[in-house]
What we know:
The complex is a heterotrimer of chains A (295), B (291) and C (429).
Chain A: H1 2-37, H2 55-63, H3 65-97, H4 103-110, H5 112-115, H6 118-129, H7 135-142, H8 159-184, H9 188-196, H10 201-229, H11 233-238, H12 250-260, H13 264-294
Chain B: H1 2-47, H2 69-77, H3 80-111, H4 117-126, H5 132-135, H6 137-146, H7 153-178, H8 181-189, H9 194-205, H10 207-222, H11 226-231, H12 240-245, H13 255-281, H14 283-290
Helix pairs in contact in B: 1-13, 2-13, 3-7, 3-10, 7-10, 8-9, 10-13
Chain C: H1 3-22, E1 30-35, H2 41-55, E2 58-63, H3 67-79, E3 86-87, H4 93-101, H5 109-121, H6 125-129, E4 132-133, E5 144-145, E6 148-160, H7 161-166, H8 178-190, E7 196-197, H9 203-228, H10 236-250, H11 263-271, E8 277-281, H12 284-291, E9 297-300, E10 313-323, H13 330-340, H14 343-353, E11 356-357, H15 368-375, E12 380-381, H16 392-406, H17 412-428
Amino acid sequence: MHLQKLRNFAGNYVFIAPALLFFFTFSLYPFIKVFQLSVTDWDGISPMMGIVWLANFKDLFMDNPVFWLSMKNAFVVTLLALTVQNSMALFLALLCDRDIRGGNVYRVIFYLPPVLSGIVVGLIWNWIYDGNYGLLNHFLSFIGLGDLTRAWLSDSRTALVGVSMIHMWKGFGWGFIILLAGLQSIPRELYEAARVDGANSWVVFKNITVPLMIPVFILVSILTILGTMQIYDIIIATTGGGPGYHTEVPMTRILTTMLNTSQFGYASAMGVVFGVILLVVSLVQIRASKMMRQV
Amino acid sequence: MEQAVFSNELEVSYEKIKRVSSSVATHLFLILVSLGCLFPLWWAFASSLKTQETVFSDLSLFPKAPHWENYLNAWTNADFGLYFLNSLFYTSVVVVGVILVASMAAFAFSRLHFWGRNVIFLILISTMMIPIQTASVIPLFVLLNKLHLINTRLGYILPQINGGLALGIFLLKTFFDDLPKELEDSARIDGCGRFRVWWHIALPLARPAIAVLAIFNILAVWNEYLLAMLVLSSKELMPLQRGLMVFQGAHITQYPLLMAGIVITVLPVVLLYLLLQKHIIKGITAGAVKG
Amino acid sequence: MKPLFRQKFIIFFLALSLAGCAVQKQDAGTLTVWHWMSDRESAFQELARRYGEETGIRVKFELFAPSEAYAQRVKASAQTNTLPDIYGVLGEKRDFASFIRSGYVEDLTPALHEDNSAWRNSFYSQALAVNEFLPGNEYGVAPGVYGIPLDVATIQMVYNKKLYARAGLDPDAPPKNWEEFVRHCRVLNNRDIPCLVSGFGEIWMIDALAANYAMNWMGEEKVFKTYKGEVPYTDPDWVRVLSLFKQMTDEDLLVQGAVTMVNKTAEQTFANERAAYAFNGSWCVNVYKGMNPALEYRAMLPPPLTDRRPMKIWGGAGSSFVVNHRSPNREAAVKFLRWLTADAQEAYLANETQNLPSTRGSLDKVAPILAEFADDIENATHPNIYPVREKPVVSEAFNKGIQSILIGEKTPEEVAGQVQKLKEKEMRR
Lengths: 295, 291, 429
C-alpha cells in the first residue's frame, strides 16, 4: 500500500517532467548565462571579458535616465492598451457573442491586424500619419479641423500616443479572440434563466458575465501587459525611438545597447532588471486574480 | 376589446423597431471596425498588383491595370514552394508539441497533487514574463551548438516549443480549474488512470482553450524568422519568412513583390483560423457539460 | 482525420525531418560565404556558378537577412568557433577590431601586396582604408588590411532638376554654399515645394550630416580633439554646427516629419518629387530608378558653410568580406575573393545591383549618375578611418539631441551642454 502510494505520487511528476525538461534546458540555462554576463563588460565578440560586478547595475539605476524614461513610455503605452484596447476588445467580443447575422465574418476580420507583419503595419501607418500627404491630415482638413494637422509621429506631443494607436490597432484582435472564447463557454441557460427573472442586459452583464469572466480578464490583462511592455517592432518600423527619446521603450534601449554600441554585458543587465520588473508586475496580477476569485 | 388588440400590435411593432434599429446600429459599428481592420490588408493587396514605379505614386485602392504576374514572380523568386512545406512542418510540430507538453503539465498543476506544485507552477510560468530572448540569443546559440542542434530542424523546433509552454500551461490550467470535479471522479471510478483521464476527458473538454492556444502558436511560428536566421543556415531548412527577405534588400525593397509575398503567407494563417474558430464556438457545448 | 491520411501525414513529416538531418556535413572542397545583402543574392549565386565552372571549386553563398539578424548570427558563431570561410563584419570599427583581436579574421596584407601590390592598387584607396588598421591604431590591432571591399558608397546630396526649374531657379546651378541653399529653399517653399528630405529617424544619417558640417566649419583636427576630450561640445564652433539644425526648423528647410522618417520613406518622398533635395547615399541611384525612372536629378556636395575648408562627406567601402583566420580553406578563400573583385566580376555586380564598384577598372561600365557620385569620393572620409572615434553612447546622445532641436524642444546650447556632461562621464570611465 505504501509503495503504491509512492508510485502514485511519483507518477504525478511524469506529467510535468517534459515541461520541466524544456524549462531547464531552454529557459533556465540561458537565463543564468545572461545573469553571468550582466556582471561583465563583455562586448559581444571577444572571448575575453572582465568582471565588473555590480557596476552595470549601479550605472543603470543611478546614471541612466534614458532607460527609465523608456520604461515610463512603455508604461504609458501599456496603460492605454489595458484600458482602451481591452475595452474595445471586450465590447466587440460581447457584440459577436450574441447570435448576430454574419458573426463569423466579423470574427475573421478582427483577427486580421494581428496576422499582418510589422513591415506592412509600419508602412501603412507611416502613410496614415504622414505630415504632408497623410490620410489623417487629409481627413482632418476635410472635416474642417485643418489646424490640427501635423506630422503626427514627429511631434513630441503626439508621437507616443500615435505609436500606441498602432500597437492597439494591431493588438486588440488577440484580446478579442480570448475574450470571445471565454464568453462562448458561459452556459446559455444562465442567461436565459436571468432573462426569465426579468433582468435587463446590463444586470445580466454585471451579475453573470463579469464574475464568470474574471479569470479570462486576468489572463488578457497579463498578456496585454507582457505584450505591450515588450513592444518594439512597431517602433522600429515607424519612429525608431524618436523624435529625441519620446518613443524609446526598454526593448529598443536593450537592442541599441547590445548591437549599436556593443555593450553586451550592460545590455544583459538591462535585460535582467527589465525582466525582474515584468515578473513582479505579473506576479502581483496573479496574486490579485487569486484574491478576486475567492471573493 | 378591439382597442386592446390594436395597442398590442402597436407594442409589438415598437419592440420590433427597437430590435431592428439596435441591430442596425450594431452592424454599422461592426462594419466600421471591420473596415479599419480590412483597409491595410486591402492596401497591401492593392499594392501587390502595382509596379515598383506606381506603388507609391498611384494610391488607388483598385489598380486599373492589375499586375497579377507579381504573384507568380513572388512565388518563384522567393522559392516559396520549398519554404512552404518547411513552415507547414515546423508549425504543426511546434503546435502539437506545445499542446501535448503544456496540457500534461497544466493537467497536473490543476488536478494532481504533488510536492512543490504551486512553486513549480509559478517558476514555470514566470519564464513567460521575462523578455529573455533578446539578451539570451548568444547563450542559446552556444547551447544549441553543444547539443549539435545548429542547422537542424530539431534545433529550430525545440526552442519554439519552449517559447509556447508558459502561456499554454497558464491558459490550460485556468481552463482545467473550471472543469467540474465530478466528471473526473466518475471517470476514475470507471477505472481510468491519470493518463486516460487526461487524454480522454481533459483534452477533449479543453478544445476551446486548445484552439485559442493553437491560433496563438500557429501565428508565432508561421511569422518567426529571427530564430531561423540564428539556428539554420541551409536554404533547404528555412521557413516561409526567409522567402520574404529576398524582396527586402539593404537599400531596395521591391514593394509589389513583397506585398504579394505577404498576401501569400498571410492567407494560410487566415484559413487555418477559420477552421479553428469553429472549435472555439464549440465551447458552447463544452460549456453546457460544465454547467 | 481519416487514418490513411494521418499515416501519409506522418510519413511526410518523417521524410522531411530525415532530409533535414542529411544536409549537415560539408566537405572541405566547398567554400562557404555568409552575407546579408539580399539584393545581391541572385547575382552572388550566378557568380558562384561561374566560379564553379571555371575552377571546379564549389562556393556556397548563404544569406542571413535583415542585417541585424546577420550581425547576431556572426557574433554568436564567433563564440562557438563556427564561422564560415568568408563572411563580413557589420558595425563599427571597434567591433571589427574585436573580431581581429579574437583571431577570427585573416590578415590579407601579404596577399594584397603580391605582384607589386597589383591587387591592392586595383581598389580605390578610400575603399581599402575602411578595412585597414594603421600602425599605432587606438584599437591595438596589428597593422594591416583585413577586409576586401566589394563596392564603395558615398553619402551626399541630390537635387531635383525639374522642381528647380518649376521654382524659377536655374536647374544647372545648385547652391554653392549654405546661405545660397537657404535662399533657394525660400524660393522653393514659396512655390509650395518642400525643401530637404532625409531619413533622420535613422540617427546615423544625422550623424553623417552633422559631421560633414563640423569638419567644414572647424576642421578635422578640432573635431578629433573633441572626440579625444580636449575640446568641449560647448565650444562656440559646435554650437554653430548645432544651430544649423535649429535654422532648418525655423526656416522650414526640412520636409515635415523627416525627423522620424526611416530612410526608405525619405527615398520615396524624393523619388515622388515631393522634396527638392535629399541627403542620401549613392545606393539611391538604384532606388530612385526603380521608383521613378523619369526622375531628373543630380548629385552635389552638401552646400558648405564656409569656403575656408573643403566639404567632407562620408564614403568608403559599402560592404566588405573577410577571410576566417581559423578556416582550413584560407588560401582558397583568398583566391576566390581575388577572382570576385577582378574587373569582369566587379562590373557584373555593379550592373546587376547599380552599386559603385570598389575597383577603378570597372568604373567606365557604370551609369553616368553613378559616375557623378564616384567623382566625389575624393572628398570622402569615414568614421572608420578617423584616427580617433567618438564613443557610441556620446554620438547617440548628440544625434538624439539634434532630433530634439529639430522638433523645437531644445536649443543648441542645451544640447551641447547635455552632450558635454555625458562626454565627461564617459571620459572618467
